[in-house]
Design goal:
Structural class: alpha/beta
Number of helices: 17
CATH superfamily of the largest domain: Queuine tRNA-ribosyltransferase-like
Largest sheet: 8 strands, parallel
Radius of gyration: 20 Å
Helix content: 40-55%
Number of domains: 2
Number of strands: 16
CATH class of the largest domain: Alpha Beta
Distance between the termini: 41 Å
C-alpha cells in the first residue's frame, strides 16, 4: 500500500519529475499548478469552472477563512469540500504570509495582529494554525512559518529561519497529537532562508529530518534577481527527500515555473493568472497581451491562436476589449478562465515533455518568450 504523501514517479528528465502524489483523497498528477481560492472561491469562478479546466488542487487561505466565516463554522458545515462544492484536493496555507504582511508583533509563541475585517485583536500560534486547518478540513495543511521581506540582513534571515524550524516542530507535534481527529490530512514543512544558499540547504536538511508529508520552499520570487531565486531554490531542493512532493510557494509566471520544474519542483500556486485576467491582461504563447489597448477594438481573432480553451474557441479579442471598456464583469471572468486554462496547459506540456524526455526543448521555448530580460515585468510586479 502506498503511503500518503509519497511521490510515484513515472519519469524524470534531468531533475524534472513527472508522476503522481498519493493522498488519502486519491492522487494528483505532478507537475501541478494550484489556482488560488483565498476565501473559498477562485475569484469570479465556480467549482464547475475549475473542474472543466482540469484543476486538481485548489489553494484556500487560512487567514481569511479563520476570520470570515470562521474555521468552526466551516467545520460545522462539513469542511471546505462540502462548504465550497469542490470535490478535488484542497491545500490550505497557514495564514502566516498574510499575517506578516500586515502590522503585527511576532514573539516565540506566535504572532499578534488585527483582523483586516473588523480590527479585532487576533493571535496565531503554530498549534492554532494546525487546529484551524484541521477544522477547515483541507487535504494538505502547511506549518506556520516566519516570512521575511527581501532583501534582509543575514542575521534577520537566520532569526526567522531558526524560529521557522522551531515552529515547524511544534506544528508537527500538534498535528501528530491530533492525528485521530485529523485523519487524512497531510502536513508540509516550509523551507525559509532568504537568498542565502547555505541557509536554505541547512533548513531544508533540518526539516527533512523531521519527516513531513511534503516540503515547501517559501519566501522566493518576491522581487529578488532571478538567478538569486534559482540558486536558493536549488540549494533548498538538494536535501529534500525524493519520495515526497516539493512545492514552490507563490509562483505563477511561466519562466520561473518551468525553470523550477527543471530543478525538481512538483507543485506551484499563484494569484497571477486570475489577477491579470481581471485587469485585462492575457497569458499567451507570445507573452502578455493587454487586451484593454485600443488596437484590439476591431480584432476578430482569438485571445491566443494557439490556445484551445473555451474562451479562445468562442470569443474574439474585440469582444473582450469591449466588455472591459464598458466595465462588464464578464470580461474578467472570461479572461481569468483563459489564463488559468493556458497556465494549466503549460504545466501539462511540461509533464508531457518530461515523459517524452524533451523537457529542455520546452524550457528553451518558454525562456525565449518569458525570460525576464526579454519579457520585462516579473511575477512580483503583478501581485
Amino acid at each position: 500500500m502506498t503511503v500518503a504523501g509519497a511521490v510515484e514517479l513515472e519519469a524524470t528528465d534531468g531533475s524534472a519529475r513527472a508522476g503522481w502524489v498519493r493522498t488519502p483523497r486519491g492522487r494528483f498528477a505532478i507537475p501541478c499548478f494550484m489556482p488560488v481560492g483565498s476565501r473559498g472561491a477562485v475569484r469570479l469562478l465556480s467549482a464547475e469552472d475549475l473542474e472543466h479546466l482540469g484543476a486538481q488542487v485548489v489553494l484556500a487561505n487560512t487567514y481569511h477563512l479563520m476570520l470570515r466565516p470562521g474555521a468552526k463554522l466551516v467545520e460545522d458545515l462539513g469542511g471546505l469540500h462540502d462548504f465550497t462544492g469542490w470535490e478535488g484536493h484542497i491545500l490550505t496555507d497557514s495564514g502566516g504570509y498574510q499575517v506578516m504582511s500586515l502590522p503585527c508583533s511576532v514573539d516565540e509563541e506566535g504572532v499578534d495582529f488585527r483582523s483586516a475585517y473588523d480590527g479585532s485583536h487576533q493571535r496565531l500560534t503554530p498549534e492554532g494554525a494546525v487546529a484551524a486547518q484541521e477544522a477547515l478540513g483541507s487535504d494538505i495543511a502547511m506549518v506556520l512559518d516566519v516570512c521575511t521581506a527581501l532583501p534582509a540582513p543575514r542575521d534577520v534571515i537566520v532569526e526567522a529561519g531558526e524560529r521557522t524550524i522551531r515552529w515547524a516542530r511544534r506544528c508537527l507535534q500538534a498535528h501528530e497529537s491530533r492525528a485521530q481527529r485529523a485523519a487524512g490530512q497531510m502536513l508540509f514543512g516550509i523551507v525559509q532562508g532568504g537568498v542565502e544558499a547555505d541557509l536554505r540547504e541547512l533548513y531544508a536538511q533540518r526539516l527533512a529530518e523531521m519527516g513531513f508529508d511534503g516540503y515547501a520552499i517559501g519566501g522566493l520570487s518576491v522581487g529578488e534577481a532571478p538567478e538569486d531565486t534559482f540558486a536558493a531554490l536549488s540549494a533548498a531542493l538538494g536535501p529534500l527527500p525524493v519520495a515526497q512532493p516539493r512545492y514552490m510557494m507563490g509562483v505563477g509566471d511561466p519562466f520561473t515555473l518551468v525553470r523550477a520544474i527543471g530543478l525538481g519542483v512538483d507543485m506551484f500556486d499563484c494569484v497571477l493568472p486570475t489577477r491579470l485576467g481581471r485587469h485585462g491582461t492575457a497569458l499567451t504563447g507570445s507573452g502578455r497581451v493587454a487586451l484593454k489597448a485600443a488596437r484590439f477594438g476591431a480584432d476578430g481573432g482569438p485571445v491566443d491562436p494557439g490556445c484551445a480553451c473555451i474562451v479562445c474557441r468562442r470569443y474574439c479579442r474585440g469582444y473582450l476589449r469591449h466588455l472591459f471598456s464598458v466595465g462588464e464583469p464578464t470580461a474578467g471572468r472570461l479572461l481569468s478562465i483563459h489564463n488559468l486554462a493556458w497556465l494549466l496547459d503549460l504545466v501539462r506540456r511540461a509533464r508531457d515533455a518530461v515523459l517524452a524526455g524533451r523537457f529542455n526543448e520546452l524550457l528553451a521555448e518558454v525562456s525565449a518568450t518569458w525570460a525576464p530580460r526579454q519579457h520585462g515585468p516579473t511575477d512580483a510586479d503583478a501581485l
